[in-house]
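Q: My labmate handed me this sequence with no annotations at all. I'd like to see what the chain might look like in three dimensions before we decide whether it's worth expressing. Could you predict it?
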Amino acid sequence: MPQFARPFLAASLLPAFLTPRPISWAFPSLESLLELFPPFLLAVPKKKVSHSRKAMRSANKGLKDKHNLVHCPGCGSPKLAHHLCSNCYSSLSRAWKAKARQEGSSPTSGVPSVVE
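A: Here is what I predict for the chain of 116 residues:
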């Protein structure tokens, strides 16, 4: 029985951070905690921000006007510059799918590929 009364590992064999130490429940004082934070972290608003001031601050976050609108050279409908015209693309897509259906193959096989 005395064999089981001994601890499994002696304290001298354990590293320093694993040795048992008494637990200290002392909390730091409020003054020492306030020294850790800079003053701007403790800043709070003095009064409620009114609705009109909030609206004025967020007025510049609205949607901006588009300046890159051009007319499609094919159909004349408005489109974004350097983008495909949705009207022309849909008509081309319908034509490709109709041609593929006439040939009896899948609709995507009639679409011309970029890499051949």
